[in-house]
What does this fold into?
Amino acid sequence: MLEGRGGARAAEPPWWPGAVPAQSRRVLRYPEVLQGVHSGAGEHRGLNGMEKRNRRPSMAEVAQHAGVSHQTVSRVINGFAGVRPQTKERIEAAIAELGYRRNNAARTLVTRRSGLLGVIAAGSFLYGPTSTLAGIEEAARHRSYTTLLATIREGAQQEFENAIGVCLDRAVEAIVVIAAQEDVMRYLSSLSVDVPVIVVGPDPHELPSLATMSVDQNEGARLAVRHLLELGHRRIVLLSGPERWVDAAQRTKGAVEECAAAGVDPVVVHGDWTPASGYRLGREIAERAEPEGALAVFAANDAMALGLLSALHEARVEVPGRVSVVGFDDIPEAEFFTPSLTTVRQDFTELGHRVVEAVMAEVDGQEADLTPVPPTLSRRGSTASACG
Amino acid sequence: MLEGRGGARAAEPPWWPGAVPAQSRRVLRYPEVLQGVHSGAGEHRGLNGMEKRNRRPSMAEVAQHAGVSHQTVSRVINGFAGVRPQTKERIEAAIAELGYRRNNAARTLVTRRSGLLGVIAAGSFLYGPTSTLAGIEEAARHRSYTTLLATIREGAQQEFENAIGVCLDRAVEAIVVIAAQEDVMRYLSSLSVDVPVIVVGPDPHELPSLATMSVDQNEGARLAVRHLLELGHRRIVLLSGPERWVDAAQRTKGAVEECAAAGVDPVVVHGDWTPASGYRLGREIAERAEPEGALAVFAANDAMALGLLSALHEARVEVPGRVSVVGFDDIPEAEFFTPSLTTVRQDFTELGHRVVEAVMAEVDGQEADLTPVPPTLSRRGSTASACG
DNA sequence: ACCACAAATGTTAGCGTTAACAAACAGCGA
DNA sequence: TCGCTGTTTGTTAACGCTAACATTTGTGGT
It folds into this structure.
């Protein structure tokens, strides 16, 4: 384990000191799926072909093994008080020996609580949604909920219905939808489901029946623009995301408002989230070479900012000397763009946690707190004073 | 929806033509969770506080509604032949009217098949694992399986055991583990579970009881190095990943072997997957300015390649003029690095699909095909002839 | 009209758990 | 010793579904 601090360790040979001999590794092998532990139930241990496994031991079997009734076993498993320590021990021993695991299907059937949280991830599997998903799963797990995942391609309403259907069929206690497009939201708000549904994404106006939660997009955009304004920029270009994405619209709105408050009139250019669209803007900027002063671009996400930087670099337009660039998201790579990218950071993990908190509150019949998560600004090397 | 082709549309005002007025949006609103549709069962429709929902209608109720026995309803739902069309229609009408949904808990209880696939995502939530996850979910869905997600922080064995436990408690029919670190693998191979387990990740030697599947890392590395050799490079630096990651080791091995076959003696430098470690190597390369010829670096992932490019750019070392760089992964951003990155592409979606195929074969008692998925090379702007 | 036979539908018995209640057992004062 | 508490354990009945079998209904040949 020499990777340690990630330091680049130099090596010897020909034209470089101290080469490390690469250690050799062996060949791929055929799999082998082992079988269960519950020896008591007496089953075969097939190494390879894996014969159909025997029934898992039931509570009744554990009970018999421990010489008690199944109900007492149930009590132990569910941590009820009022079981003699000695009995409890006997039961726990039996459980361990038989490798017993509670049958959640049966439990769900009788308790009418599945302990399942459905998560529907719509569209892209980019950094943001993914981190949010991880945060959600983590928070759910801490509340002893298990996460059911369904992904859908963007724009496929049929798939969406199926996804909801899957969740409902599995009796999830709540559904979280990670989505940002307006059509998904519209569809969602027209939907009637008997469990709490919460959308992780910006709140679109005009859809009052929708519970949404997100990082405050408007505020994030304001943060970015305010930063540019403070640096003295007056010529600001807003590279927005596609209009069907609600967060794109909100970022644009926030940026425009912040500009307006400072008496600045920004130029709005539409991108599509991809680096390619940023790249195009970059070329355009480079072509209209304007020596009369500094320009600032607020790109609505880091990917577009990356394309923009790429184009500007190609055209030898100095960043941040001639053009300042601010991104949005703070993806892990942003710090290593050329130059490192000043960008708005969204704490997706925190968002995921809060979403679960909110949706669980709903499940418990309480009121959910849907306050947006505040963004922060990561100041780096792509922005500089306008009077540079 | 003007984003369309993502073209950067220019605007008017002060110093730029044709600015687009940002449309205004409204305020956030309080949530509102709607209630079920099954009107027949007669329940309350709470708008906000959401009172405990009434029982969902059961098969028996549907049967009664349609004037048949519940078994006939079951037959219709499960698509059995031998139900008179007329009866079927009546039942389907009743189902629609009551908003009936099958209770999977009950179904699982009696059939002993949960239709659940457990996916454990270990460690990072980067592009690769995430795309694979999406592929797995998609493939599972197409086979009418539902995906259960559990994430764990790397190195946390306790969490790992819990994750397996969660899956087993939910009676998943198979488990897919997305992991690459040796310790996770070692733990896994010592584990005894009564359902098929397959690891998505490179196959470590010495753990014969482990079924693994991945993109062919060795071949990918060879592809990258072969490309460099074909360009005439003889001075090759391998920026590897951390040693505990099996794929890091395999990439290094493949690269070393390919070099050896060409009589080239590479320098191996250890990185840690982060752009930072690539950056460090970049500085080191820049400092030891060697005018005597071109250098080539094979970075074991795109993130490190990014850091490397960043450092080289900063130090005004020309890429690919003085140094050629190849990455690994082909993350979406790679195309827009400066310069665009030549890198090894892994088809994670395909990988996900194949993994599900394999694990489902196991479930059906058939033999799984664990052939690794072949990688391809994306040739871009970061590599050039050594004799440039 | 009647029987034979197939097609369509109905009945019954679990699956493994929890909830609700019932019983047995201990301890304790009279 | 008896009854009265409480504590600990056991019994029974769902939960909603499918599998297996039983029954009814329909169809065609005679």
Observations:
- Residues 64 and 70 of chain A are 8 Å apart (CA to CA).
- Chain A touches chain B through 146 residues (CB under 8 Å).
- The radius of gyration of chain A is 28 Å.
- Chain A has twelve helices and eleven strands.
